Amino acid sequence: MKYISTRGAAPALSFDEVLLTGLARDGGLYLPESWPSFSPEEIRSLAGKPYAEVAYAVIRPFVGDSIAEADLKRILKETYAVFEHRAVAPLKQLDERTWLMELFHGPTLAFKDYALQLVGRLFDHVLKARGERVTVIGATSGDTGSAAIEACRDRAQVDIFMLHPKGRTSEVQRRQMTTILSPNVHNIALEGTFDDCQDQVKAMFNDMAFRDAMNLSAVNSINWARIMAQIVYYFVAAVALGAPDRAVAFSVPTGNFGNIYAAYAAGRMGLPVSQLIVGSNSNDILTRFFNSGTMEMAAVSPTLSPSMDIQVSSNFERLLFDVLDRDGDAVARTLQGFRQSGRFAVTAEQLQRLRRLFDCHRLDDAETLAEIAARHKASGELLDPHSAIGTAAAAAALRDDVSVVVALACAHPAKFPDAVKKAAGVHPALPPRLADLYEREERCTVLPNDLSALQRYIGGNRPPADADTRGAA
Ligand SMILES: *Cc1c(COP(=O)(O)O)cnc(C)c1O
What letters, b where the CB count within 10 A reaches 16 and e where it falls short, cover 7-43? Predict the structure, then answer.
């Protein structure tokens, strides 16, 4: 399997190269050259199989000969053995047509674990084979850093440095990062804001000498391997609910458009997906787009669902590639215009084509709290604010002729205890394995908002170059 860039001007790469590269050299995102296709019989044969085996069937064609069959099987088995629930991504019925898929049984209680736990192991495997090591750096406002840290901890070929704004993350979020004491994990509390953290990470990537010396890498949501790993649970859920003989809709609380794009990809691969519902909070650039055909940037305001507080959804570029009939030049031109003017539009015909599959619904914070309260009252289910946007969007936008919808529960309610308590009057407890989080030892280094101080710290805390079998080239 070869991968091509959405902007059409970067070299085609193999899976292992795409895994390590992230962003394409022309600024685009990598996509498989063609979609592997599953027949109804092949889909039917997935019924009743353990999660890791479905993952193998779905992922194998994307990996090609980059990883030996036996190795990929072992890696997938190890990855999904880490998850707390035996079903890995269990389904719960909420009402006649609505099911909830719980994607919070990983180490950090949010759905990003389902992809990042795999990506960390794939990194290690591929880097070992190449005799390389990488330095992963990232910035977090608190909600996603822990998933990246958990993915990289104790990996032999990886060091991770995660910047968070000092004193500006919640205590649960900080502790989920700083209590990981593995020697290759480095938490940095920056004396600044989240924007300062992001700017410093960008500056480090733009310093080519530093970038090469450290072999910098990122595990952000534009990495193809993360999308690939997310396709798996759409197959698992649909097959459990009757696919290929019954089509299934999905309602996805959406930020960067990675998760719902994976559902779209599953459809392209032959899974009968009848409808995709994009849920957004008041940062509603996507719902405005699906209603009007115009993508228009606006300022971001903080909400109760911070993982969806985005200005631009980076993975939307992958869908745009299909909208523009896989014309890389047209994608590049459209997005260049978007960067300059803050807006672009698709034609009425293109929007109409998208709307055959996609619908959308937006909730503000008050509506989100009302949904948490109503679901708790009706079924005893405690939803986190992101998950509540998914269930409310499902209820609001489900088409009459769709018989079943799966709303994605993207985070455990205990990750957002204040909002849940406010809405439902119940304080959600952390699961037993995290119950002592507040007693655990923390490790974290405070650094000033200063590029050279950061670079000195990272250079000094990474194993020396001679521990690195990778050549200077
Ligand atoms: C990351 C995240 C989202 C948004 O997912 P995208 O793939 O960026 O659309 C929604 N909810 C939670 C809890 C998340 O962590």
Answer: bbebeebebbebbbbbbbeebbbbbbeeebebeeeeb
**To test the ligand 1 pocket, which listed residue (233, 276, 280, 307) has its Cβ within 8 A of the most ligand atoms?**
307
Which residues, including other chains, have CB under 8 Å from residue 165's CB and lie 6 or more apart?
141, 189, 190, 192, 193, 194, 196, 197
- Give the tokens for residue 110: 């949010």
What phi, psi does 91 have (nearest 5°)? Answer: -105, 140
**Ligand 1 mean position to 45 CA, how many Å?**
30
Q: How many angstroms separate the CA atoms of 373 and 378, rounded?
A: 9
Please report, as a single letter, which amino acid is at residue 229.
A
CA 132 to ligand 1 centroid distance, Å:
31
User: pLDDT value at position 463?
Assistant: 78
Checking DSSP bridges between strand 343-345 and strand 294-296, what pairing results, if any?
A: antiparallel
**Separation of CA 462 and ligand 1 centre (Å):** 30
Q: Which amino acid is at 298?
A: A
> What pLDDT score was predicted for residue 473?
35
Per-block mean pLDDT, blocks of 10 residues, the chain (473 long): 96 94 89 98 98 98 96 98 97 96 96 97 96 93 90 95 93 94 97 92 91 89 94 98 98 96 98 98 97 95 92 94 98 96 97 98 98 96 97 97 96 94 96 92 97 97 60 37
The residues that are catalytic are 112
Ligand 1, CB within 6 Å, residue ranges: 110, 112, 143-144, 221, 253-259, 307-308, 386, 410-411
Expressed in angstroms, the distance from the first to the final Cα of the chain is: 26
DSSP character at residue 411: B
Residue 464: the pLDDT is 64
Question: Token pair for residue 154?
Answer: 């104790």
Instruction: Give the class (CATH, top level) of 91-107+224-424.
Output: alpha beta
Task: Work out the angle at residue 269's Cα, subtended by the Cα atoms of residues 85 and 21, and round it to the nearest 5 degrees.
Answer: 75
Six token digits for residue 410: 């993207």
Q: Residue 345: what are its φ and ψ, rounded to 5°? A: -135, 150
| CA proximity to 455, closest of 216, 157, 132 | 216
Contact in structure between 286 and 360 (CB atoms under 8 Å): yes
**10 token code pair:** 């970067």
pTM exceeds 0.90 for this model: yes
Q: What is the DSSP letter of 46?
A: T
